[in-house]
Amino acid sequence: MIELRNVSKTYNNGTEAVKNITLHIKPGEFVSLVGRSGTGKTTLVKMLVAEERPTEGRIILGGWDITRIKTADIPMLRRQIGVVFQDYKLLPRKTVFENVAFALEVASYSKKHIQEAVPQILALVGLEPKANEFPDELSGGQQQRVSIARALAHRPKILIADEPTGNLDSVNTREIIDLLLKINNFKTTVMLVTHNRDVVNSLRKRVVALEDGKIAYDQERGRYIL
Amino acid sequence: MIFLSTKRILKFSWQHFWRNIWLSIVTMTIIVLTLFSLTTLVLVNAIADYAVNSVKDTIDVSLYFDNSIKEETVQALEKELEKIEEIKEITRVSPADALAEFKEVHKDDADIQAALAELDKNPLGGTLILTAFNMDQYPLIMEKIKELKADQLAEKIDYNDHQKLIERINGFSNKLRNFVLALSIIFIFIAVLTVLNTIRMGIYIHRTEIAIMRLVGASNWFIRLPFIVEGLLYAIFGCLIFWGAWALALYFSGDWINSFLTGINFDIRAYFNSNILNILGFEFIIIAVINMISAVLAMSKHLKV
Ligand SMILES: Nc1ncnc2c1ncn2[C@@H]1O[C@H](COP(=O)(O)OP(=O)(O)OP(=O)(O)O)[C@@H](O)[C@H]1O
Ligand SMILES: [Mg+2]
């Protein structure tokens, strides 16, 4: 599903953020990407959604070589990968429903489809009762669930979460991780970028650890060792 | 699906317009001023053309004959002159008509009436008035008149081509035109800067929304078109506001403006009534192009994909 072949990324200022990474993630896998700050985790995520281009190597997603993807094709790619971040990136003047609907609106989905799909997704993340509330009326964990709901709007095959629990307490963190597991159960490939040792250790799923832009270890049922 | 997107893009454009309402107002004000300047330019051109044409219409050649020349001779000459193809029209004023007109013009002047009554013979001769199809043909007509020896027959030939007057009108209107043109260019320049700035602000205000649109896979035109349409909205509203104000101004002070132009018989209302579509089209296209170019410029600098 996700294939990186000898991928390196050097930023314009000379920072070598990712160095010769080769990684294969199968469809339906749940992978945790761990590593200290500044080891290139976010850089890797950005390359997967074509926000950054690799300096070397190739990236293939579901058979689609996106290494030299055309600007015009990037929207198509982003509809096939859902991404969530530590800061939920919600629109404060839109309700929960509208925030999720937004992803479908800008992709020219019909109003009918939106009216049907959004409540389903909100039900999946457990936010149906909050549909008409605004982001600042929600807890951090609820806001992140809205963000996840929006990332799922296009029913992507891949969901990437870059430190989704970075701003959350342990209870909310647990809820978000459980939600990601639930989504993974529906055959969505999930990549979780995290610093949270407890989370990684409790997951008992595949762990890929980065150190200084390189893969330090890659284990099935791994633990956070670094 | 295209229709749906169009509707949403219009909705986004409308939101851009409203969230930025003060800048929108400033932008439309500049557009209205630009339109005022452009309309003045059109008007100056029209009035100058009209003035020159009305002077040209008064150009003619008059041959005055002494009262000793018989009418038949004048009629014979008229027949000859009719063969000159450059001549559009010949008006013959007979001595009797000339006298009648003279009496009519001076009907309140007792002295002249008395003097005329003293005379038993008509003191006035006949006149032939020639007009050409266009003003360039007069020199040729003058030559042909000489060939016919009409200049010897006539007591006096009156030909005024109003060259000096036409030059003066053209000189004055060219100066005015250049001034208004320079003003229009300055306004267009300010309009470009204003629209550019407004759209740049719009991009800044909507930066989070734009970032999220990218994140969730909005196509580039979905992100960009609202700004271009926003530019078009300024053009449309600017034109509507200006044309509304202009129509009111014409309605209420058209007579007052016309009073300055009685000399050339120019009717500003009639002019705008008969040219409204051309002027509207010309101005809207200029304003719309200004706005869209500005929008594209603003995006190329501040909305990288
Ligand atoms: N746009 C950029 N230009 C230049 N250097 C960058 C840029 N983005 C990141 N870097 C550098 O690349 C390296 C990797 O950054 P990256 O954000 O991928 O780390 P990370 O593993 O996500 O860290 P964190 O856990 O703190 O989020 C860092 O040294 C960072 O300073
Ligand atoms: Mg990071």
How does this structure look, described?
The complex is a heterodimer of chains A (226) and B (305). Chain A has helices at residues 41-48, 74-80, 96-105, 111-124, 140-152, 170-185, 197-203; strands spanning 2-10, 16-25, 30-34, 56-61, 64-65, 81-85, 158-162, 189-193, 206-211, 214-219. Chain A is of the alpha/beta class and 226 residues long. Chain A has a single domain (2-219), classed as P-loop containing nucleotide triphosphate hydrolases (Rossmann fold), CATH 3.40.50. In chain A, the strands form two sheets. In chain A, strands 6-7-8-3-9-10 form a six-stranded mixed β-sheet, with helices on both faces. In chain A, strands 2-1-4-5 form a four-stranded antiparallel β-sheet, covered by helices on one side. In chain A, β4 (56-61) and β5 form a beta hairpin. The mean pLDDT of chain A is 94. By secondary structure, chain B is an alpha+beta fold. Chain B folds into two domains: 2-55 and 165-302, no CATH class; 59-160, Alpha-Beta Plaits (2-Layer Sandwich). Chain B contains eleven helices and four strands. A four-stranded antiparallel β-sheet of chain B has the order 2-3-1-4. At the A-B interface, α2 and α3 of A face α1, α9 and α10 of B. Magnesium ion binds next to α1 of chain A. Chain A: InterPro entries: AAA+_ATPase, ABC_transporter-like_ATP-bd, ABC_transporter-like_CS, ABC_transpr_LolD-like, Cell_div_FtsE, MacB-like_ATP-bd, P-loop_NTPase. Chain A: Homodimer. Forms a membrane-associated complex with FtsX. Chain A: GO terms for molecular function: ATP binding; ATP hydrolysis activity; transmembrane transporter activity.
Question: Which descriptors apply to this entry?
Answer:
heterodimer, A: 226 residues, alpha/beta, Rossmann fold, six-stranded mixed β-sheet, 7 helices, B: 305 residues, alpha+beta, Alpha-Beta Plaits, 2 domains, binds adenosine-5'-triphosphate, binds magnesium ion
